[in-house]
Amino acid sequence: MLSKTLFLAFASITLAVTSGAAAAQVAAKAKTAGLSPNCAANAPVRQFLVVAGEWDTVPKGRDGKPVAYTDRGVAREANSKLERYSFDPSVIIVKRGDCVELLVHSVKGDVHNVVIEGTEIGTEGAPIIDDAGKAIGKAAARANPNKYEGPDKLKAGEFVRGEQVKLRFQANQPGTYRMICEMHTFVGPKGELRAYDDKGKAVKGPMVGYVSVLP
After folding, report:
1. How many domains does the chain have?
2. How are the residues of the chain apportioned to helix, strand and coil, as percentages rounded to the nearest 5?
3. Measured torsion, CA atoms of residues 100, 113, 120, 207, in degrees rounded to the nearest 10
4. Which bin fits 114, alpha (ψ -120 to 50), beta or left (φ > 0)?
5. What is the separation of C-alpha 129 from the centre of its chain, rounded to a whole number of angstroms?
């Protein structure tokens, strides 16, 4: 009877320890970011130039005059501009373990920012770099350096036409991560991307790219 009791006690302890270790592993895995802001010293560096641009048109009738139209089900008045912002390239493909550098250059659109969904990676505080790659500032809250366009003041993470920011991160986990400009994208309650916000206001997007990490 004593030996049976000791066996059951030992089994309970073993199960508790094993369960605790498994739970700790799950928790640790949950905290492991798919993309991290710090690169290992020996990680291979992959650098990409990404252009933030705009496609636009004013729909016209057969007579060449502007006409009213619908933009994804939303009625628009004649002579209003139909716009869509995009990243080029729209898909960045890297391998697990790569240190990735994205040089994001804005050529159209007054203001942009970039966040990579579900990660710590974004342009808030990211370095603004010149053509040689030298840091000349940061994407922090500041006055708009382009006096000819609004807004007058920029929020943290925003950069303007002609500026180039650098995002640097390590690809830790395979998967596809959405790269979003929050200025031109509304994310719906189920994660869907929309060109109009919940009040029907156009945000001129959605503006999204993808970082795909291979095993």
Report:
1. 2
2. 15, 40, 45
3. -80
4. beta
5. 19
Regarding whether 58 and 11 lie in a shared domain, the answer is no
Q: What is residue 10's predicted lDDT score, i.e. its pLDDT? A: 42
Q: Identify whether residues 10 and 111 lie together within a single domain.
A: no
**In CATH, what number is assigned to the domain containing residue 195?**
2.60.40.420
Domain that holds residue 125: 36-214
Element of type H or E holding 99: strand 99-106
Residue 102 Cα to chain centre, angstroms: 11
Q: Is 0.90 topped by the overall pTM?
A: no
Give the burial class of 156: count Cβ atoms within 10 A of its Cβ; 0-12 exposed, 13-18 middle, 19 or more buried: middle
19 plus 86 within the same structural domain = no
Q: With contact defined as beta carbons under 8 Å apart, do 146 and 154 qualify?
A: no
Residue 31: pLDDT band (50, 70, 90) is very low
